[in-house]
Write a structure and sequence with these properties.
The chain has about 425 residues and is an alpha/beta fold. The protein contains 14 helices and 16 strands. Strand 1, helix 2 and strand 2 form a beta-alpha-beta unit. The termini are far apart.
Length: about 425
């Protein structure tokens, strides 16, 4: 039996675990490779998903020999027989445990992003890995989960050698393995695709499991109103870009949808947001109420962070650019801002002075009045910023090839800055 990839293995494994459906089940993936398998198992069974970070405590002069393991919430499991036979003293035990617990806590923070562990107490816990070799980590995991109060522990793996499975039946209440070949080799040999899983993928799978994300048409809460929006989140997106449209434009704007599609193909999420309700769109005062638009854009950024757990950036057009900069001036966690044919001059000088997010102002060379206004606004920006002039483009970028140039500039700006942490302090403005 061979598996296409970890997702295929997880779906097949879930079919063998069908008898658990409807029970109070918690699926725990062993990082890193076990988490993609566990994600599919949890999804198929409709069960909760979490990561189980365990660290083996190895005998100092023979690290592959484990005398115990540590897990979340201060759990420690010791093997008295190994301690006695290897002669590991208390000082040596404490030195090893301090090092392994520090690494455990680092990984837990990285994977969960400050979310607390899902408690296993009184539940059926399914411990999942992408395969077994020696089984030492899986054995430690089962012992830790038992010690945390799980009612029943099921170890589930796609592939593993029979000799290892026999030993692990002493640590788990049930062992499920789809394939136990006589000649095992390595775990990766039983997969057609077995790429390395990085920490970001583990964190992303956990985020998607704990924060189910709607895709398509959504309503975003903003104070007393709910704003219509179009939400797209590609797999493993590192961030989401919220679009602030200009006057007379909305989430159906073909220009912004084109740019959003380019960003989606680059792996970024997008939220095409109407900052006004249908009734408000006819109120010219509200159309140019930059403070109102900025406040609602800030509410959308908060919704995005709560929904996805991802960093947020802004893309503004026309008056939406001013709203994006006003909102960014109040939210130093905004990672980047891009303006297309925008009116940043409609933001107050005080707001422009406070913006910390790297800002790109894109203007058409034929749009001379708006270009001048962008240059005036740029004089107030203290953040990392640049004006990009698209040759032969007017205000709406309707000329052949000009909108493609805008999308390319936006993609490059966002991908260059969204991997960086938010700017702590803006540089000083120079004359």
């Amino acid at each position: 039996m061979r598996f296409q990839d970890r997702a295929d293995a997880g779906r097949r494994l879930a079919r063998r675990l069908e008898h658990l459906r409807g029970q109070d089940v918690l699926v725990l993936g062993l990082p890193r490779g076990g988490v993609p398998v566990a994600h599919e198992v949890a999804r198929e069974l409709g069960a909760a998903l979490d990561v189980l970070v365990v660290r083996k405590l190895g005998v100092p002069w023979q690290p592959e020999l484990a005398f115990g393991a540590v897990g979340d919430d201060g759990v420690r499991v010791l093997n008295d027989d190994v301690l006695l036979q290897a002669g590991v003293g208390l000082d040596a035990q404490r030195t090893v445990e301090r090092a392994e617990r520090a690494e455990l806590e680092r990984r837990s923070r990285l994977y969960r992003r400050d979310r607390p562990p899902v408690p296993p107490t009184g539940r059926t816990v399914v411990v999942v890995d992408d395969g077994l070799a020696t089984g030492a980590t899986a054995e430690a995991a089962c012992r830790v989960v038992h010690d945390q109060g799980a009612d029943r522990v099921v170890l589930a793996v796609p592939v593993g050698p029979e000799r290892t499975l026999r030993r692990l039946r002493q640590s788990a209440d049930e062992v499920v393995c789809l394939h136990s070949p006589r000649f095992f080799g390595s775990v990766g040999a039983w997969y057609d695709a077995f790429p390395q899983v990085d920490d970001r993928e583990v964190a992303d799978l956990l985020r998607r499991a704990t924060h189910p994300v709607p895709d398509g048409d959504v309503d975003v809460p903003a104070g007393r109103v709910r704003l219509a929006a179009r939400f797209t989140l590609p797999d493993h997106a590192p961030a989401v870009v919220a679009f602030a449209h200009g006057s007379g434009s909305g989430r159906h704007s073909p220009r912004n949808r084109y740019v959003a599609d380019v960003l989606n193909r680059a792996g970024l999420g997008t939220l095409l947001l109407d900052l006004l309700t249908e009734d408000e769109e006819h109120d010219r005062h509200k159309v140019f109420d930059i403070v109102l638009l900025a406040r609602r854009l800030g509410a959308a950024a908060l919704w995005l962070r709560r929904t996805t757990g991802l960093p947020v950036a802004y893309f503004g057009a026309s008056t939406g650019a001013a709203a994006a900069l006003e909102a960014a001036a109040e939210d130093f966690d905004i990672r980047a801002v891009v303006s297309r044919g925008g009116r940043p001059d409609l933001a107050t000088p005080a707001a422009l002075d406070r913006v910390r997010a790297p800002t790109l102002l894109i203007v058409g060379s034929l749009d001379t009045r708006v270009l001048s206004l962008n240059r005036l606004a740029a004089d107030w920006l203290r953040c990392d910023h640049r004006i990009a002039v698209v040759p032969g483009a007017g205000h709406l970028f309707e000329e052949p090839g000009t909108l493609s140039a805008v999308a390319g500039l936006a993609r490059e700006w966002f991908t260059a800055h969204l991997a960086l942490p938010p700017t702590a302090t803006p540089p000083r403005r120079t004359a």
